[in-house]
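Hi R.,

As promised on Friday, here is the backbone we talked about, encoded as structure tokens. Could you run it through your design pipeline when you get a chance and send me back a sequence?
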């Protein structure tokens, strides 16, 4: 169902346990419809001019990546227990954000910029296409990482754990040695 779900992990199977496949598919479809409508609204508000930089799709993909970073921390790292309904992640992550973000339009926009580029308009258009390709990739990766870091820090501050890793976070070698040394004493 969801690329980040490992069905070998019992907690991850909760989304599809006990015949919940159809409800999961239903919330994904409903969320996808909402996300697609939101993306369409952004495309109307920020239309890409002929051969211009597609700011609307760029914004949608970067904001969507930031939101998935927040969601994954909130749902996967911090609240994967009885408080979080098992349909939250499929609805918001796969549905809403999957429908909101768009790799296909990103690829088509880049191809159109390249097709109309060097031969029709000169190297400036090819530069726009390459800036769009690389800029979206870098901005999206930075957005998901930064949103996750900021969300973790905000939750740590709220929970009074300033700078402490999540309770189930794997320890580094330094922490493992310190724990072994403390246990030996």
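Update: got your reply. Pasting your designed sequence below so it's all in one thread:
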């Amino acid at each position: 169902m969801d690329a980040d779900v490992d069905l070998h992990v019992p907690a991850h199977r909760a989304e599809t346990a006990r015949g919940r496949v159809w409800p999961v598919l239903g919330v994904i479809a409903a969320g996808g419809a909402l996300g697609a409508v939101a993306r369409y609204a952004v495309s109307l508000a920020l239309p890409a001019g002929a051969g211009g930089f597609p700011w609307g799709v760029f914004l949608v993909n970067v904001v969507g990546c930031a939101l998935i970073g927040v969601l994954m921390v909130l749902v996967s790292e911090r609240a994967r227990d009885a408080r979080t309904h098992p349909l939250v992640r499929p609805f918001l992550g796969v549905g809403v954000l999957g429908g909101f973000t768009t790799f296909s339009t990103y690829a088509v926009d880049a191809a159109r910029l390249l097709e109309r580029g060097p031969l029709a308009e000169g190297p400036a258009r090819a530069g726009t296409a390459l800036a769009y390709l690389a800029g979206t990739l870098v901005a999206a990766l930075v957005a998901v990482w930064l949103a996750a870091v900021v969300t973790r820090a905000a939750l740590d501050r709220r929970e009074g754990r300033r700078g402490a890793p999540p309770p189930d976070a794997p320890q580094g070698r330094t922490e493992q040695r310190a724990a072994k040394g403390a246990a030996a004493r």
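One thing I noticed while checking it: The chain has one domain: 10-184.

Thanks again,
M.
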